[in-house]
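> forwarded from #structure-qc
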């Protein structure tokens, strides 16, 4: 299992002694266990281009993680050596690799329940074959145990003259809504009943005032009876849905798109519509839920970039943008888990969030096919 080579440090010795102390006190060895939280998007690259991969895991064991012990290891097969250059040859940033098959833990320590991050670079070789290459990774406590296999991978597409599809643009814009890096990462997280989620950390709504103004005009015109200004500019509240947020106070400045340091997205349908508009010039307004239900396909066929929605008896209406398929195959209609970016109600306003939807909750959703009109996907 262990093909990397590093000197034994004082931190390593301390970590091992702490684990032994826990074993003496509890009668059980400290355990190493991990739960996947999220990762950034699959890249499409040309030869000589670079990409930074990021993934986070929650420490679900009893042992604290330290960077001299816990790493991200290459998997399927274990300890494989990737066929990409393990460096950032585009901007010269730190590679994140500590050996040919190990990526460093970013944090100095991760206690049980905490979240650990791994980030690394690939550069495509000048003569790399074209195609899609699936790169698997898995956390490992080196010299102790491999942790759970969550099937974490990136599909790295190497193309001759990379093309950005409509779906790529939608996903990138959804990630941009979370944070200006558009990496799918954010400096903020938020705790909900479903667990810890990545949250928006900036004023996305106000970052493109022309787009916001255009979309607000569409919604105000279509729903004039439930909209009113409070006051100008661009602060809206409504007596009923649809709206872009129930509270007229938009954060510390009582306006625009932030609340307590988190990025606001407005009502979920408005947010999804704005992402479509900003990413691709999509000019249609998403219709009422009762109309959306006539233009659908099963969520089992969901693909990254799709708009999915929930509507029906005893269901809270909701709209989200799919950024990744976590399990299942959209070609065969067997998708059972997806990663989404959406706007969710939290503490008086709608916050932009990234999180998974799976199982019985996902079956409540349908793919909205009306968004395909005028697009060559």
């Amino acid at each position: 299992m262990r093909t990397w080579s590093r000197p034994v440090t004082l931190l390593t010795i301390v970590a091992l002694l702490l684990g032994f102390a826990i074993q003496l006190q509890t009668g059980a060895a400290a355990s190493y266990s991990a739960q996947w939280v999220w990762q950034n998007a699959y890249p499409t690259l040309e030869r000589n281009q670079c990409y930074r991969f990021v993934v986070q895991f929650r420490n679900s064991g009893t042992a604290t993680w330290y960077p001299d012990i816990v790493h991200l290891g290459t998997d399927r097969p274990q300890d494989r050596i990737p066929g990409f250059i393990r460096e950032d040859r585009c901007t010269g940033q730190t590679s994140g690799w500590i050996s040919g098959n190990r990526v460093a833990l970013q944090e100095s320590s991760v206690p049980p329940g905490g979240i650990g991050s791994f980030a690394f670079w690939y550069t495509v070789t000048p003569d790399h074959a074209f195609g899609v290459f699936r790169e698997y990774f898995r956390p490992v406590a080196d010299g102790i145990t491999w942790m759970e296999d969550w099937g974490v991978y990136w599909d790295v597409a190497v193309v001759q003259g990379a093309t950005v599809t409509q779906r790529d643009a939608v996903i990138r814009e959804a990630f941009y809504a979370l944070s200006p890096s558009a990496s799918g990462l954010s400096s903020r997280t938020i705790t909900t009943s479903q667990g810890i989620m990545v949250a928006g950390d900036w004023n996305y709504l106000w970052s493109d005032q022309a787009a916001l103004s255009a979309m607000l005009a569409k919604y105000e015109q279509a729903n004039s009876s439930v909209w009113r200004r409070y006051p100008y500019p661009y602060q809206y509240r409504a007596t009923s849905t649809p709206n872009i947020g129930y509270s007229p106070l938009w954060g510390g400045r009582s306006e625009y798109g932030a609340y307590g340091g988190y990025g606001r997205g407005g009502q979920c349908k408005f947010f999804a519509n704005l992402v479509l508009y900003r990413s691709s010039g999509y000019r249609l307004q998403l219709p009422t839920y009762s109309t959306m239900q006539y233009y659908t396909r099963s969520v089992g066929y969901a693909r990254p970039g799709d708009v999915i929605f929930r509507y029906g008896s005893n269901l809270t209406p909701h709209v989200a943008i799919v950024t990744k398929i976590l399990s299942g195959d959209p070609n065969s209609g067997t998708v059972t888990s997806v990663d989404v970016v959406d706007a969710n109600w939290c503490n008086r306003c709608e916050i932009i969030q990234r999180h998974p939807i799976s199982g019985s909750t996902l079956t409540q959703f349908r793919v909205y096919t009306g968004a395909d009109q005028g697009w060559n996907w």
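QC bot note: The radius of gyration is 22 Å. The helical segments are 10-26, 166-178, 209-222, 268-280, 289-292, 359-362.
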